[in-house]
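Quick start: read one record
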Amino acid sequence: MSKDITSVIGNIPFRMAFAGGWIDQPFLSQLNPSPPGSMVVVSLEPTSRFMNRCGMATSTRDVAMRLWGSTFPDRPPSDLVKELYTVENEGKAEPSGSQDMVGLLYPGVSRLDYDCEYEGGYFPVHIESNNDPDVARWLEDVIYMVPVAPRPDGYEPLGEKNLDPIWIERLSQSGKDCYDAIIARDARGLGASLNECMVCWETLLPHTVRHPTIRIDLMGILEYYQSRYVGAMYSGCGGGYIYVVSEEPVPGALRVDVRYKKCEM
């Protein structure tokens, strides 16, 4: 008898993080001259298992399953975000960002707005979520995931920081542009926001794409996809998957199933 894949990998969703990533970290948001800064996350149905250490919030998902089992508790997602954040980051010198938790817990496409004046910048001051099934289906049609490689052992993305407020503002704007493009179902706008985010990463935190432990040419691979398709960015620092925006099939790519809140009839 065949089994549903969730019997093996669990029912907790995964999440994609798009443009604006890293603005959920206070060391960046506190220097943003035009707060709040934004980033975009997309909740995914657990229809396949994603690789660890690839920017898909797999470690946060593992903590959620240990904490709650196969389903989320029936409590406000904002409360669950803080509970999960506290458990995962206990004792960590460099805590993970709350966008991981929000991306798992909030269905649909969400824009997370961060302001360091709100709870120290650790949690979004506002979450704008879209659960329109037409938007979800459109996004599934234009996003392709190309596996590259997990970030290597010993990798550290924060060894070099060039925290220029102008570039932090550009990073935060890329998140706003990304969300607007998805809601408008504008593939070119979405691709441009992902490309802009990668330029910001390379400028602000160079080790996100170049580091002595990384043995592959991440930028060369990225430039290949950006030059041939509408836009592309990595799923996380140090590698992982490449998200490619395209209205045509991308060879070797995976597809996703966006999790959104269904309206009751």
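The mean pLDDT is 95.
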